[in-house]
Sequence to fold (131 residues):
Amino acid sequence: MSTITITENSKVKNKEKDLKQATSSNDLDAVLNKVKKIDNTCSFIKCKNRTNDFAIECKYCKGRFCPTHGLPEIHGCGDAVKKDERQKYLHPNVKLTQEKHSQAQTKLNMKLKQMQQERKAKQGSTSKGKK
Fold:
């Protein structure tokens, strides 16, 4: 479970403003080149490293970062990571495979049948004792 958090003191660029400026032109080729350049630069403020060869996408803020700023704690998603890890630790989400789920279901059904037969046997023996 990932969360997207935006902090007031964010170190991530506001790419929406840059995209509005880049798309203001009528020349389609120029617009595409500007958008491609914006998308292939690190999302960290004041960083102009290119990310077209290798980029790390943050699962918390969806930004693309160079290897220097790729860690969430460095570019400002530390609180989101802390919250996500705490959630995983306190509420582990253990999923069973389909095979293990069906095995557990058959085992449960067998146990329920056994308990039902034991109850019937007890009821039969107590009714005989009362007569």
